[in-house]
Amino acid sequence: xxxKEMERLAYEYQLLQAQAQLLAQNLELLTLGRNEFQxxxxxxxxxxKAGGEVEILVPIGAGSFLKGLIxxxxxxxxxxxxxxxxxxxxxxxxxxxxxxxxxYDEAIIKTQEALKKLEAQLGELAxxxxxxxxxxxxx
Length: 139
What we know:
Structural class: alpha+beta
Radius of gyration: 25 Å
Low-confidence stretches: none
Oligomer: single chain
Number of helices: 2
Strand order of the largest sheet: 1-2
Largest sheet: 2 strands, antiparallel
Shape: elongated
């Protein structure tokens, strides 16, 4: 009977570990996405402050760049998802990016909470397994 209970605990532990691993990977992706939006927002904010000509590096692939000048310092083309982008004035672009950053922050918090919950469940399962092993007569 104890053997079956140990097998069940081990199986449940493995399932929870796999879920925790997926959540950790998701958390990493969310954090990367959030940081990317934050970097774009900061770039646009710096552009707003810049006076005169603004020179940038334009990526052309394979780690190569061309130097370029920004000709429109009033508008930005912002990705809105699903392969679509919209031209917005800089203030609207910043507001949009801040909203997306907030969404990422909320998703990150929820994922962290779910991960903590899973880790607590894993700890409980490990504790049950230890107690079960202690109560098992050794032969």
